[in-house]
Amino acid sequence: MYKLIKKQGNAKRGEYRTPHGTIQTPVFMNVGTAAAIKGAVSSMDLKEIGCQVELSNTYHLHVRPGDEIIYQLGGLHRFMNWDRPILTDSGGFQVFSLTSLRGKIREEGVTFSSHIDGRKIFMGPEESMRIQSHLASTIAMAFDECPPSKADRRYIEDSVSRTARWLVRCKEEMDRLNRLEETLNPNQRLFGINQGGVLEDVRIEHAKRIAELDLDGYAIGGLAVGETHAEMYHILEETVPHLPVDKPTYLMGVGTPANILEAVDRGVDFFDCVLPARNGRHGHVYTRRGKINLWNAQYQLDTQPIEEGCRCPACRAYSRAYIRHLLKAKEMLGMRLCVLHNLYFYNTMMQEIRDALDEDRYPAYKRQALAGFEELGL
After folding, report:
1. 255 annotated as a binding-site residue
2. Quick one: CA torsion of 207, 210, 215, 218, rounded to 10 degrees?
3. In this predicted structure, what is the pLDDT of residue 95?
């Protein structure tokens, strides 16, 4: 399970042992929504660029190809040829993001219209756990509602109370599923999710409540959905101390390199975000001096790699000028190289964070990294 190796201030350096390998933390999980990283990145590529954990989406895999099909094919690891840890989110975020396709949120769960063919889909705590059990991921996320961060207090309080009740049902159902003989991964882990918008008292009370369940890990959801960075950091400062220090703390859907550095400083050790892959697909690539847009004309004759000294597959072999040409010619290779670079950048930054924590120099590393990013406004 989770071993806290050391702390520097509130920053944690740990490792999380799973049936699919040990995760060194802090860690950035590479997002493969439909069991693939957008941008033509394979599972073999992920190993080359230092990915420890792949993250897939429960709702999207339930809709297509169907969790029953993945179960019959031996689970998500075998399906996508990935032997390292996989985290599956619960489908709960779609309660927030697919408002135009869902019905009323009820105690039992939520009814969606599929974004692909319009068919009705019901998902509640038990359904989410069954789908994730079929997927046989390493870590399953509890089913929750992510209320809008600026919703009124009454709505947020009611939503968080329901999410707390749903978590108990998730735990009971996962315990049942893990005892079944036909379950592909009987050691599947369950992480609960803290919610509460930007209301610190609601966040704290919910953190205390879910901490009593002695789960395998704890996530903080519902941030980076409209609030300021200062508000997000404040919520982390107030909430994280009320979650178990001897369990992983996961900040969902965050974020920029600067967000990660600040959140590590506040005790977070699991991260995921679509930004590096999404930005890469649009030719926006990360460097230690900030983010650059390879579509810009200034790179037309630029023979440098994206970043000097970078050992990613793109920088080892290709120039900015060539990658810009590929993007403008709509060649998929250009998008692929940018995504590979960005994910390598994130995974390498996490290794540097771990090294800095190991060597008791994280504050200095953070200051240096943030100063570099600010040169180009990252």
Report:
1. no
2. -30
3. 61
Give the CA distances from residue 155 to residues 89, 95, 158, 161, 232, in Å, rounded to whole numbers and listed in that order: 23, 14, 5, 10, 20
Given the residues 45, 67, 216, 272, the one annotated as active site: 272
Give the residue from 148, 18, 78 showing the smallest Cα distance to 29.
18
State yes or no: is 272 an active-site residue. Answer: yes
Q: Beta strand pairing status for 139-141 and 27-31? A: unpaired
Q: What's the pLDDT score for residue 377? A: 56
Q: Residue 146 annotated as binding?
A: no
Positive/negative CA dihedral, 343, 346, 350, 355? positive
Is 15 in contact with 47 (CB distance < 8 Å)?
A: no
Separation of alpha carbons 208 and 354, rounded Å: 28
Which residue in the list 45, 67, 89, 269 is annotated as catalytic? 89
What per-residue confidence (pLDDT) applies to 93?
75
Hunting for tokens 């036909």 — which residue is that?
182
Q: 16-22 contacts: CB < 8 A, separation 24 or more? A: 16/217, 16/248, 18/85, 18/138, 18/139, 18/187, 18/189, 19/138, 19/185, 19/187, 20/77, 20/83, 20/84, 20/85, 20/86, 20/138, 21/52, 21/83, 21/84, 21/85
User: Over the stretch 303-357, which tens digit does the pLDDT of each residue have?
Assistant: 999 999 999 999 999 999 999 999 999 999 999 999 999 999 999 999 999 999 9
The residue ranges of the chain whose pLDDT is under 70 are 95-102, 376-378
Token pair 């369990």 is found at: 247
Q: What is the DSSP-derived secondary structure letter of residue 100? A: G
158 is annotated as an active-site residue: no
Q: Is 133 annotated for ligand binding?
A: no
The pLDDT mean for the chain works out to 95
- Cα 99 to Cα 178: distance, rounded to the nearest angstrom: 32
Q: Please give the pLDDT value at position 92.
A: 76
> Rounded CA gap, 82 and 75, in Å?
11
Tokens 């001096």, residue located: 289
- Locate tokens 């230092």: which residue? 50
93 is an annotated ligand-binding site residue: yes
* pTM greater than the 0.90 cutoff: yes
195 is known to lie in a ligand binding site: yes
Report the candidate in 245, 258, 267, 359 with the shortest Cα–Cα distance to residue 9.
267
Residue 94 marked as a ligand binder = no
Q: Which domains does the chain have, with CATH numbers?
A: 2-273 (3.20.20.105), 280-373 (no CATH)
